[in-house]
Design a protein that fits this description.
It is built from three helices and no strands. With 87 residues, it is an all-alpha fold. Helix 1 packs antiparallel against helix 2 and helix 2 runs antiparallel to helix 3.
């Protein structure tokens, strides 16, 4: 059962990351690319969290916190930069 769960999660996270990378490459505007990077970081947080849940350990909690803070601070700073450029 755990093997099937791991395979399904790997496929889902891989497809999500691939679609985010496509949007990152093809995004016509800066804000589309910001959303794609944020989605890629959210996918990474989900993958690390799923790995921690499947293996039943909490040693990756600092990694999850750092990735979440990186995504939040990066998104806010890039959006503020984009708003200043539009003026």
């Amino acid at each position: 059962m755990i093997v099937v769960l791991a395979v399904v999660l790997t496929v889902l996270f891989s497809v999500t990351a691939l679609l985010a990378l496509v949007r990152l490459y093809r995004g016509p505007s800066l804000l589309d690319r910001v959303v794609a990077v944020d989605m890629l970081l959210a996918t990474m947080v989900g993958a690390v969290g799923a790995e921690a849940a499947v293996n039943r350990h909490a040693m990756t909690l600092p990694v999850l916190v750092v990735l979440s803070l990186l995504g939040f601070v990066g998104s806010v700073s890039l959006v503020r930069f984009a708003v200043r450029e539009d003026r």
